Amino acid sequence: MPIRNSAKAIIVQDNRLLAIKKKDKDGYYYILPGGGQEHGENLHETLKRECMEEVNAKVEIGNLLFIREYIGKNHEHFEFDSEVHQTEYMFLCKVKEESRDIGNGIVPDEGQIDVEWLSLSELLSFRLYPQTMRTYIIDYLAGKDLPVYLGDIN
Questions:
Q1: How far apart are CA 154 and CA 152, in angstroms?
Q2: Among 17, 21, 77, 140, which one is most buried in terms of CB atoms within 10 A?
Q3: Are 154 and 132 within 8 A, CB to CB?
Q4: Burial class (CB in 10 A: 0-12, 13-18, 19+), 81
């Protein structure tokens, strides 16, 4: 299976992080909006399309904050993700003012239940994947100097 590129949005507004809500056997969990890059798209085009499809939001894309790899065979979901190798490019984004109806978009992510704003002060209590990103997001917003490339994390 080839390596897949993915663009993800880190959208923070009013001390809350926008996330996609899903559910599995262990309960609710969250992921960042975004998804796979299609042939002929640059990463910004991918992210704009994915944010409209998943969270019904037009976004203004800012700086690239983090690059994360996910090599499925190395993590807790290896039994069904062992063939997955994905590189995710995470950009700081803002929701454009004309996007007032944030919620499930026209092409929600597989298994997507809803869209929620997660309180940053409670972020560590949410099952947000990749889990390591919770601390990176909090530290970035606190002004800490962080690496861009995070390696193979979950």
A1: 7
A2: 17
A3: yes
A4: middle
Q: Which residue has the tokens 């390596």?
A: 3
Alpha carbons 86 and 144: distance in angstroms, whole number = 26
Beta-carbon neighbour count of residue 19 at 10 Å? 24
Q: Which residue has the tokens 């690239």?
A: 64
Round to whole Å and give the CA distance between 123 and 130.
12
> CB count, 10 Å around CB of 63?
10
Q: What pLDDT, in 10s, does the model give residues 46-103? A: 999 999 999 999 999 999 999 999 998 888 776 767 888 999 999 999 999 888 889 9
Residue 47, SS3 per DSSP = helix
Token reading at 119: 């309180």
Quick: pLDDT tens for 29-43.
999 999 999 999 999
Q: What is the separation, in whole angstroms, between the first and last Cα of the chain?
A: 20
